[in-house]
Design brief:
single chain, about 375 residues, three-stranded mixed sheet, 14 helices, globular, binds nicotinamide-adenine-dinucleotide, binds thymidine-5'-diphosphate
Length: about 375
């Protein structure tokens, strides 16, 4: 049966990937003519500035295709009212609380939002949709649920889950719950596990934006452990075109891995970033390199992530379209130019947190 795809509820659409999804759908996707309803609790990582351009262009009287609803996904009454008010037929669930370091220090919010929030959404979708088949619940997840790799091998869709941080454990639980609603209740569910994203609007606690901004401000560049941990990087827009492919043509009850086929050791990536920042800003690359400092490792730091994404390539014809060189250049330029945005997301609480995170690693 064809999917309706008319009224899409995007949870956490004021975050990094969610806001990019909304922008990509409304601005760049001629095949989507429906409405997007963005439900976000505006935590420290959520910012309406991330969707300001969308609100202006698609949330006004002459064009009403975008709606913002302030609220927590754990709030059942709120979620139910949104399903009714907008007659939701598709959910794209960007489960939140996404930073591993925070999950080590404050795991409770991860369990609440990622597990209970996902449960609430699934259960509301089940009740509202009854047994409709033209609807879809797409659950966004991470490759971190698969655990860690040594030098060889890749995560495939059949790799057993082995989460090792409170963050990945909470995501693994929510993934299993989504699949359980499909198996037990027949809820039309699809799931994707993606590698590390980068791009514009990413909250500057994550590796790439944190390093760019520290360079611009002459702050230390803290590298955890020996700097040889490996991540597979994907430009956020490529992630979202993959999600769009799955929403349209992915098979119900299936999971799809999404990756950049783009593995980098952290220290090699940092050196590359230094060259790009130096070139774009006029700062001296050698001076920037002097800012690198090796700090205490993250507990349980996964060594390597690498995704085998042949399933989505073969089955749905998806390909990444942005090269790492272009994506990094675009990202660096964006952070250098958008100082207003940077200031607006950096609350005092945020500054205190990053400062402490860094100091603790130096002192211990
Ligand atoms: P983010 O941290 O930038 O954004 C999180 C958003 O969720 C914010 O807008 C915040 O306000 C909102 N939020 C938090 N708690 C909420 C609640 N209880 N109710 C409603 N809204 C709430 O996250 P991100 O990096 O965009 O990640 C989005 C999703 O993608 C997550 O599921 C994450 O696990 C997954 N993912 C991220 C990456 C990555 O590299 N960033 C990689 C793979 C998968
Ligand atoms: P991060 O962006 O937090 O993503 P994830 O932990 O989900 O992969 O970190 C990416 C890599 O960079 C990870 O190996 C940890 C490392 N890292 C540092 O070396 N220094 C830092 O200050 C941060 C935030 C991360």
């Amino acid at each position: 049966m064809a999917r309706t795809l008319t009224n899409i509820l995007v949870t956490r659409g004021a975050g990094f990937i969610g806001s990019n999804f909304i922008r990509t759908m409304l601005k760049k996707n001629p095949n989507f003519s429906g409405r997007i309803i963005n439900l976000d609790a505006l935590t420290y990582a959520g910012n309406l500035k991330n969707v300001e351009d969308i609100e202006k262009e698609f949330g006004n009287e002459s064009c009403r295709r975008y709606f913002f609803e302030y609220g927590d996904i754990c709030d059942r009454e709120k979620v139910e009212s949104i399903f009714r008010k907008y007659n939701i037929d598709t959910v794209v669930h960007f489960a939140a609380e996404s930073h591993v370091d925070r999950s080590i220090l404050q795991p409770e919010t991860f369990l609440k939002t990622n597990v209970m929030g996902t449960f609430t959404l699934l259960d509301c979708a089940k009740s509202y949709w009854q047994n409709r088949e033209d609807v879809l619940f797409h659950h966004i997840s991470t490759d971190e649920v698969y655990g860690t790799l040594d030098k060889n091998g890749f995560f495939t869709e059949t790799t057993a889950y082995n989460p090792r941080s409170p963050y990945s454990a909470s995501k693994a639980s929510s993934d299993q719950l989504a699949m359980a609603y499909y198996c037990t209740h027949g809820l039309p569910v699809t799931l994707s596990n993606c590698s590390n994203n980068y791009g514009c609007y990413q909250f500057p606690e994550k590796f790439i934006p944190l390093m760019i901004l520290n360079m611009m401000e002459g702050k230390k560049l803290p590298v955890y452990g020996d700097g040889k941990n490996i991540r597979d990087w994907l430009f956020v827009e490529d992630h979202n075109t993959a999600v769009w492919n799955i929403i349209n043509n992915g098979r119900i009850g299936e999971r799809y891995n999404i990756g950049g086929e783009n593995e980098w050791e952290n220290i090699t990536l940092l050196n590359r970033l230094i060259d790009i920042v130096a070139q774009k800003s006029g700062l001296n690359a050698d001076k920037l390199r002097n800012l690198i400092v090796y700090v205490k490792d993250r507990p349980g730091h996964d060594r390597r992530y690498a995704i085998d994404c042949s399933k989505i390539k073969t089955e749905l014809g998806w390909r990444r379209s942005v090269s790492f060189e272009d994506g990094l250049a675009k990202t660096v330029e964006w952070y250098i130019e958008n100082t207003d945005w940077v200031e607006s997301v950096r609350s005092e609480r945020y500054l205190a947190w990053t400062e402490n995170n860094y100091k603790n690693r130096i002192n211990e």
